[in-house]
UniProtKB/TrEMBL annotation:
Protein's name in the database: Telomere length regulation protein conserved domain-containing protein
GO molecular function, one term: telomeric DNA binding
Region (Disordered): 9-29, 554-608
Domain Telomere length regulation protein conserved: 612-723
C-alpha cells in the first residue's frame, strides 16, 4: 500500500499533479498537502451516504473527482440524489464538501479567473466546474458564508496584525471560491430556475427564494467578504476577488443579474415577475440604488440591438408602490447624469437632443405605469422631491406629458401649480428654489397649453385662483417672491392678451438677463421621439469606468517601469599639452543633500517626481495615493499652483469641478502633519479664483453628495474664508485666527510641545477658523456697548480727560481708512457675487433640506452640533461680509430670520456651540439693519415685527436660564437685548417726532 501512495508538497515538489492547476495564484511559503493515488485505484460510490462517508475522511484527488461526478447536478437522471434540494443529508454533504475541499484539495483544484465564467454549462467537466455546480444553491451559498464566518476571529486583533498563516490561506481560498461562484451575471436566474424546477410545493419555493434574497440581495456577502479581507494579507484594490466586498461593484453585479432575469422571463409569467419584484425590493436596501439602476438601464434600454422595453416596464410593475417611487427617483438621477450634466445654454441642438432622449425613457414610464405617472406630476407641482433639480429635467417631464394625446395631465399640472404658487403659506414658508421650480413649471406648461389649445389657457388664466395668486405674489414681503409673481404675470399676459393690454412692470429687475431667461421658457417646445431613436449616453456604466481607470493606471505604471535611461556613447579624449590646468578655477564643494546621504548607493532614489506644472498633472498626483512622493508633492503644491493658474489661461476652468471633488474626497493616508491646512488652502484658492462656479458647487456638494462630516466641514470653512478673502479681509482674519504674522517662535525648543501635541493643547486650535472670525465679528459689534457702559459707570464725562467711548471714534476712522484701501482690491460686483454664489445657495439648500426631511431630525447628519454650528457661522461670515449696502438687503434679512425661526426651538439649539452660533447670527442681522440707517430699523419693527419679537423673547429666556459661568452666551444675549431696545426707542422717537435717547 505504501508503494501506491506518496505525500508530496505542491509548493516544493517539481512533480506535476494529476489535475493541472492554474498558476494564477500561489501562496509563497504555504505548505499544502495533496494526496496522489495510483491511476488503477477506483472508488465505487453507489449512494449519497457513501459520498458523505468518504468526504469526512482524508481522500485522494481521484476519489474526490468521483464524488463530484456523482453529485454533479448537470448529470442527474431520474431517481438520482439531487444536492440542490434541501435536506439533512444534503446539508451534511455540502458542509463536508466545502470544508474538505478547501482544506485539503484546493491546490489541485486551481481556479481559472476567467472574465466570462462557464462553469454553469453542463459540458464543462473540469473538477472546479463540477464543484461549483454542486455548491450553486441557496444551501450551498449559505454553507460557504457560514464557513467563511467561522474562520474569522471572534475578537478584533490589534492593528497591524493579520490572521494566522493557516487561517489566512483558508480565508483566501474561501473568498476565491465565493467570488468564482457569484461571478456569472445570470446566476440568480439559474438559482430561481432550479428552485421552480426541483421544488414541488409553492410554500417551499417561497421559503427558498426568501433565503436566496437574504443571502445575496442583502449585505451579508458584502460584510463577510469585507471582514475576511481585513484579516488576510490581501489588498482590497489588488485582490482578484475583492469585488464582492466593494459596495458599488457588488451593486452593479446585482443590477446585471436583475437585468438578466428580466430579459429572460416571459411576459405572461406573473409568478416569476413576482419573485423578481421581491428580489429588487431587497436589493435597494444595500445603499447603492443608483448602481443597480444604472446597470438595469444599460442592459435593457441602452442597447441598439434589442431594447427590452416590455421587460423594463414589467420590471417596474412588479415592484411595490414604495419601491416604485424609490427606483423612479434613482432613474431620474441616472438619466440626469447620463444626458443632462454640464449642458451649456448656448448649445441649443445638444440641449434639445439630450432632453429628447430623456423624454423617450420617461414616456415609457408615464404611458404604462400609472403610479409613477402620478408621482411625477406631484413632484412637478410641489417643486420639491424626486431629484428633479434642473430645468432640463422639468422640460423633459413636461414634454413627456405634452406628448399625451389627452391634455388632461397638462391642465391638472397647470391648475394645481397655480394653487401652490398663490398660496400665502407657501409664499411665506416654502424655500425659494421650490418657488422658482414652481414658476418654471407654470411657464413651460402655459407654453404647451397655448400652442395646443388656446381657449383652454385663456379660461384657466381668467379663473379666480390665478388672479388671487398674482395678487398674493405682488404683495409678498420677499423681493424674490414678488419677482416671480411679476415674471409669471408678464409671461402669461403676453400669451393671451393683446399687445395694448398686456401686463408690464417698468422695473430694473424685469430688464435683467434672468428675467429674459424666465420669459423665454413659455416659448420652449421639446419633441419626444420613439424608442428606436434613443441615442446612447456618452457616460459608461460604473463597472466599465472602474475597469478602464484601472487599466489606465496599470498602463501608466508599466510605461514608467519600462522607461530605461539612454546610455551616451563614450568617446576617448586625447591628451594635449597645449592647455595648462593652472587657469582652471575649481568648483566649490556642493551642499549636503539629504536624499544622497545614505551610505548604500542602491537605496538612493534619484528619479524623484518634479512639482506639477499643469492642473491635469496636479489631478494625477492627487489621485495617485499609492505613490507617497507624488501624493505629498501634489497636496503641498496645490495652493500655489491654483493661485498661479487662476489668472492665466482656461486650464483651471476646464478642470475646476474635477479638482474640487478630488480635493474634497482626499484622505490623510500617510498622516501628513499639515494635510488639513493644505486641503483647506487649496479649496479656498479655488473659491477665490472662481467664486461664481465654486460657491454653488460647494453648496450642492454639501447637501447632496455623500461626504463625511470632516469633508463637509472643510467645504464650509473654505466657503467662509473664500468670501472673506474676496472682500479683502485676509490680514484681519489671519489675526483673528491667531496665525503667525511673519515672526517665528523664538522660544527654546524644550519649552515647546511637539507639533502633534501642540495641535491638541494649543488654546487657539480649539476653535475652527470660521468660529474664530465669528467671535471677532461679535466682539467688534459688542465693544461699543461695553465702552459706553464703562463710561456711564465711571462718573460724569466732564471730570475725565478722555472717555472710553472716544477711543471708538479713533478706531472707526482707522476702520474707514482700511475700508478705502481694501475697496481698491475687491471686485466691483462683490455684493452680487457673495449673494448669488454664497448666500443664496447655502440658505436655499438648507431650507430645501428642512422642507424635505421629517420633523424628527435625530438622525439627520446636518443637525449634528458641530456641522450645524459651522453652517450657521459660515452664514454669519457671508452676511457680515456683504454688509448693509447690498441691493438684496431685504431678501437677506428675510431669509436669515426665516432660518433663525426654524432653528431656535429645535433640539439642536440646546447645544452650547449651536446656541452661541444662533445668537451670533441674530446679532449680525441686527447689525446690518442698524448700519443701513433708519430704513433698516423701521423694516425690523414693521415688516419683520413678528419674527423679531419672538426671537427677542427667546433671547431673554436664554439670558435668564444661562448660568453665570457661560460668559459668551450671556454676553451675546445681553448685547442683542440692548440693541433691540435701542432700535425700538429710536423708532418710537421718530413716531413722536422727537429724538429720544436711550439710557443704559
Amino acid at each position: 500500500m505504501e508503494a501506491l501512495l506518496k505525500v508530496v508538497k505542491s509548493s516544493d515538489s517539481s512533480e506535476e499533479p494529476l489535475i493541472p492547476h492554474s498558476p494564477a495564484r500561489e501562496t509563497p511559503g504555504a505548505q499544502r498537502i495533496s494526496v496522489i493515488e495510483d491511476e488503477q485505484s477506483e472508488a465505487h460510490l453507489s449512494s449519497p451516504e457513501d459520498v458523505l462517508k468518504i468526504l469526512k475522511s482524508k481522500i485522494p484527488a481521484s476519489t474526490l473527482l468521483e464524488a463530484l461526478k456523482f453529485l454533479d447536478p448537470a448529470s442527474l437522471e431520474n431517481g438520482d440524489f439531487n444536492i440542490i434540494i434541501p435536506s439533512s443529508l444534503a446539508a451534511q454533504i455540502l458542509h463536508a464538501l466545502i470544508t474538505t475541499t478547501i482544506c485539503d484539495h484546493w491546490a489541485s483544484l486551481g481556479m481559472e479567473h476567467d472574465p466570462k465564467p462557464s462553469y454553469q454549462l453542463p459540458s464543462s467537466q473540469t473538477p472546479q466546474a463540477m464543484l461549483l455546480r454542486c455548491v450553486k444553491s441557496p444551501s450551498g451559498i449559505g454553507t460557504l458564508l457560514a464557513y467563511l464566518r467561522s474562520l474569522l476571529p471572534s475578537q478584533t486583533p490589534p492593528q497591524g496584525k493579520s490572521a494566522s498563516s493557516d487561517k489566512g490561506i483558508l480565508i483566501q481560498d474561501a473568498l476565491s471560491l465565493l467570488s468564482r461562484l457569484l461571478s456569472p451575471i445570470d446566476l440568480i436566474f439559474h438559482l430561481l430556475t432550479d428552485i421552480r424546477r426541483f421544488i414541488d410545493h409553492e410554500v417551499r419555493k417561497q421559503l427558498l427564494w426568501q433565503e436566496t434574497i437574504s443571502l445575496l440581495a442583502s449585505g451579508k456577502v458584502l460584510s463577510i467578504s469585507a471582514e475576511s479581507l481585513k484579516y488576510t494579507e490581501l489588498s482590497v484594490g489588488t485582490s482578484a476577488h475583492s469585488w464582492i466586498s466593494n459596495g458599488k461593484l457588488y451593486a452593479a453585479w446585482l443590477g446585471k443579474n436583475i437585468s438578466s432575469m428580466a430579459s429572460q422571463f416571459s411576459i405572461d409569467d406573473d409568478q416569476a415577475w413576482k419573485y423578481l419584484g421581491a428580489f429588487i425590493s431587497r436589493s435597494l436596501s444595500i445603499g447603492q440604488t443608483d448602481q443597480v439602476v444604472i446597470e438595469i438601464l444599460h442592459t435593457l434600454l441602452f442597447r441598439k440591438d434589442r431594447p427590452g422595453t416590455e421587460n423594463f416596464i414589467n420590471l417596474l410593475k412588479s415592484l411595490r408602490q414604495h419601491d416604485q417611487k424609490r427606483i423612479l427617483e434613482s432613474i431620474l438621477r441616472c438619466l440626469e447624469r447620463a444626458y443632462l450634466v454640464n449642458l451649456l445654454e448656448n448649445e441649443d441642438k445638444i440641449v434639445d437632443a439630450s432632453i429628447s432622449n430623456v423624454s423617450i425613457i420617461l414616456s415609457l414610464i408615464t404611458r404604462d405605469v400609472v403610479i409613477m405617472k402620478e408621482t411625477l406630476k406631484n413632484w412637478l407641482i410641489s417643486g420639491i422631491g424626486g431629484s428633479i433639480n434642473s430645468v432640463y429635467m422639468r422640460r423633459s417631464l413636461l414634454a413627456t406629458f405634452a406628448s399625451d394625446p389627452e391634455l388632461e395631465s397638462l391642465s391638472q399640472i397647470f391648475t394645481k401649480s397655480i394653487d401652490v404658487f398663490g398660496d400665502k403659506l407657501s409664499i411665506k414658508h416654502s424655500p425659494i428654489p421650490a418657488q422658482e421650480a414652481n414658476a418654471q413649471v407654470i411657464l413651460l406648461t402655459a407654453g404647451y397649453l397655448h400652442r395646443l389649445e388656446t381657449t383652454d389657457l385663456s379660461s384657466l388664466v381668467q379663473a379666480s385662483s390665478y388672479l388671487s395668486a398674482i395678487s398674493n405674489r405682488l404683495g409678498a414681503a420677499s423681493t424674490r417672491s414678488r419677482f416671480l409673481g411679476m415674471i409669471v404675470g408678464t409671461s402669461l399676459s403676453k400669451l393671451i392678451d393683446k399687445p395694448e393690454s398686456r401686463m408690464k412692470f417698468d422695473l430694473a429687475e424685469m430688464e435683467s438677463d434672468e428675467a429674459s431667461w424666465f420669459l423665454r421658457l413659455s416659448d420652449t417646445q421639446d419633441q419626444v421621439r420613439t424608442i428606436t431613436d434613443l441615442e446612447l449616453p456618452h457616460t459608461l456604466s460604473s463597472t466599465e469606468t472602474i475597469k478602464k481607470r484601472a487599466l489606465n493606471v496599470k498602463h501608466e505604471k508599466m510605461q514608467e517601469s519600462s522607461a530605461k535611461p539612454t546610455a551616451s556613447k563614450i568617446l576617448p579624449l586625447e591628451d594635449s599639452d597645449e592647455y595648462n590646468d593652472d587657469d582652471l578655477i575649481p568648483y566649490q564643494k556642493p551642499d549636503a543633500d539629504a536624499s544622497d546621504s545614505d551610505e548604500d548607493p542602491t537605496l538612493i532614489q534619484r528619479s524623484k517626481p518634479t512639482p506639477p506644472v499643469y492642473i491635469r498633472d496636479l489631478l494625477t498626483y492627487l489621485r495617485d495615493i499609492d505613490n507617497y512622493d507624488r501624493y505629498i508633492l501634489g497636496i503641498s503644491t496645490a495652493p500655489s499652483l491654483i493661485r498661479r493658474k487662476s489668472g492665466f489661461g482656461s486650464e483651471l476652468d476646464e478642470h475646476i469641478r474635477d479638482l474640487s471633488l478630488t480635493l474634497t474626497s482626499l484622505h490623510d493616508k500617510y498622516n501628513v502633519p499639515k494635510f488639513q491646512e493644505y486641503r483647506l488652502q487649496s479649496l479656498t484658492e479655488l473659491v477665490v479664483a472662481r467664486p461664481l462656479v465654486l460657491g454653488p458647487w460647494i453648496a450642492n456638494a454639501f447637501f447632496h453628495i455623500d461626504l463625511s462630516q470632516s469633508q463637509r466641514s472643510s467645504l464650509l470653512v473654505a466657503l467662509g474664508l473664500g468670501a472673506r478673502e474676496l472682500a479683502g479681509y485676509r490680514e484681519e482674519d489671519s489675526k483673528a485666527m491667531g496665525l503667525p504674522q511673519g515672526s517665528a517662535d523664538t522660544s527654546f525648543p524644550s519649552q515647546r510641545l511637539p507639533p502633534r501635541l501642540e495641535i491638541q493643547y494649543d488654546p487657539t486650535s480649539k476653535h475652527t477658523p470660521t468660529e474664530a472670525i465669528s467671535r471677532n465679528i461679535a466682539r467688534n459689534s459688542l465693544e461699543p456697548l461695553a465702552l459706553n457702559a464703562v463710561d456711564t459707570m465711571s462718573g460724569p464725562n466732564a471730570l475725565k480727560v478722555r472717555t472710553f467711548s472716544s477711543r471708538m471714534e479713533v478706531e472707526k476712522k482707522k476702520h474707514e481708512q482700511e475700508q478705502l484701501r481694501r475697496a481698491k482690491s475687491i471686485p466691483k460686483d462683490l455684493h452680487r457675487i457673495l449673494f448669488e454664489a454664497f448666500f443664496r445657495p447655502l440658505t436655499s439648500g438648507f431650507s430645501l433640506m428642512m422642507y424635505s426631511t421629517s420633523s424628527y431630525n435625530g438622525n439627520n447628519p446636518f443637525f449634528s452640533p458641530h456641522l450645524l454650528s459651522l453652517f450657521i457661522q459660515t452664514t454669519n461670515l457671508v452676511i457680515s461680509t456683504i454688509g448693509p449696502s447690498s441691493v438684496n438687503h431685504l431678501t437677506i434679512t428675510s431669509d436669515v430670520l426665516t432660518l433663525l425661526m426654524s432653528l431656535h426651538n429645535s433640539a439642536a439649539a440646546t447645544e452650547p456651540t449651536v446656541l452661541s452660533a444662533i445668537l451670533s447670527l441674530f446679532l449680525a442681522v441686527l447689525d446690518i439693519n442698524i448700519a443701513s440707517g433708519s430704513s433698516g430699523e423701521e423694516r425690523l419693527v414693521n415688516e419683520f415685527a413678528e419674527q423679531v419679537m419672538e426671537m427677542r423673547e427667546w433671547v431673554g429666556g436664554i439670558f435668564e436660564r444661562t448660568p453665570k459661568g457661560d460668559d459668551q452666551v450671556r454676553m451675546l444675549a445681553a448685547g442683542i437685548m440692548v440693541k433691540l431696545g435701542e432700535v425700538m426707542n429710536r423708532y418710537q422717537g421718530r413716531l413722536f417726532g422727537m429724538n429720544a435717547e436711550f439710557s443704559f
